[in-house]
Amino acid sequence: MKAELSANGTAPPLDGGSTYAPLSSVWERSDGELIEAMLAFYATIKPEPILDATYNAGRFWKGSARKVVSMDIDPRHQPMIVADNRVMAGVPSNKFGVVVYDPPHVGPQGRDKSVKRFDVDFGATMECGKGHGWSLSYLYPPFLEQAQRVLKPDGLLLAKITDMVNSHKSRWAHCDFMRMAEAAGFTVCDLIVKIRNGPMTSTKWKTAHHARKRHCFWIICRNGDCCERQLPAHRLL
Predict the structure, then answer these.
(1) pLDDT for position 29
(2) Integer Cα distance of 1 and 11 in angstroms
């Protein structure tokens, strides 16, 4: 993937090179390729080591040579760290250049029980009923506190967030995440719309009240006060 970065549209190198290479705000290729493009575009410190706080089967990293520390609450995925990302017990502070986060996007009441391994693959086990405002956004603040703790200064948090409809109402998870990230001390730098081939459907659904989503958001946050790429001191003279 690294060899294709210039074709994907990435930023100038960290040495302050002047080549302008934009990164599109809409992405129609794989998540793994997008992560690689974001690392090249936004990182102002060395991104590695990278902590994937919701590793699961490691789908983001297939074919990648990146040094990734895997964390998951489910031991069946055999992560390096078996832990709840809202606690991160034993994980040292100021250790990582990047934290990647892909939380559950649907609660158990919305899962399709006919699909094998749905709970395992997509984490559709976290409650999001009336007590949680019919939303999974309550998962974000404790994670954000831990992510800021384990990130180095100016490190990146890359979060994949999907809005959902629950209790006949749209729940704007990406808005919640950005607001909560700012409250936790992050600077929210950017938002990229990730497109998938088609909307999720089910033969059980008889009436449509909302547009079927075929996108999610990747939210880019920095553990610092500035999102702009800083030029080396010698370039400022």
Answers:
(1) 93
(2) 15
